[in-house]
């Protein structure tokens, strides 16, 4: 009989993503972008999901009948569902009704259960609901992604060290990231600052909801970041500067990354690149500015990111099929013998 490893192989696909050098010829600038959309579920959140679940297992916090319960805009829910499926745990995700339908479908496809809520107070609504559910049922395990120090720790010991090994000359002049939970910004910021004390750690946030800049939370179109409150993890991030990016700027850059670089990424990635280019412009053409490409584009098909494509689909669907002289369709003709 063959011997089988007890570790699910899909977990070994997490991390060690490439660092891409992106030349922006029109701007005469370049930046470096960590391709986190290449993680197995399609986002950077695979890292925290694996780390938190494996830590819970090692410390006896998970039983075979445990249910992993988390509030998320979607990416963490997809990642927890992937890890849960691989390890045999039930996963229940609390999601805002405003999250894209593709994220819900991916969670369900991986066996996760979903409960939708009205985000009257942003993420805080779902976080409170998760805490109430856990108080009433001991089977629930809460990863607590917004406050769990393991989230930042994984990026500090993993993502950031990968960046420092991959960047030319192991030099980082600035690190730019938005924040959903704050784990990437805090963890990578700490490690990069430790290696390069003069490096600038930059928090990107939506111009319409620039809470770190003292503004009130408001609606914006950059899904997955700035969810209506400042997460506890962000409060310990070594932030030197804040850059605002509008939803429109993020959308335009995301479409440009696809059209000019072949990078199928989500809107938060476009926003990160916008902010990184601003930093590169400030620091000069030789500066090494690093940012994150957070997730893949497919989970945004129902959003404005793919609006133009949907209009083309609708037009083609409504157009009559061209026919030849005998009334047969002129394309996609399948002949069977």
Automatic annotation (TrEMBL):
Q: Where is the Tryptophan synthase beta chain-like PALP domain?
A: 11-295
MF-aspect GO terms: cysteine synthase activity
Which keywords label this protein?
Amino-acid biosynthesis, Cysteine biosynthesis, Pyridoxal phosphate, Transferase
The biological processes this protein is annotated with in GO are: cysteine biosynthetic process from serine
What InterPro entries does the record tag this protein with?
Cys_Synth/Cystath_Beta-Synth, P-phosphate_BS, TrpB-like_PALP, TrpB-like_PALP_sf
CDD domains in alphabetical order:
CBS_like
Give the Enzyme Commission number: 2.5.1.47
User: Catalytic activity annotated for this protein?
Assistant: O-acetyl-L-serine + hydrogen sulfide = L-cysteine + acetate
Q: Which cofactor does it need?
A: pyridoxal 5'-phosphate
**Superkingdom of the source species:** Bacteria
Q: Which family does it belong to?
A: Belongs to the cysteine synthase/cystathionine beta-synthase family.
Query: By its UniProt entry, which PANTHER family does this protein fall under?
Result: CYSTATHIONINE BETA-SYNTHASE
The name on file for this protein is cysteine synthase
Lineage of origin: Bacteria, Pseudomonadati, Verrucomicrobiota, Verrucomicrobiia, Verrucomicrobiales
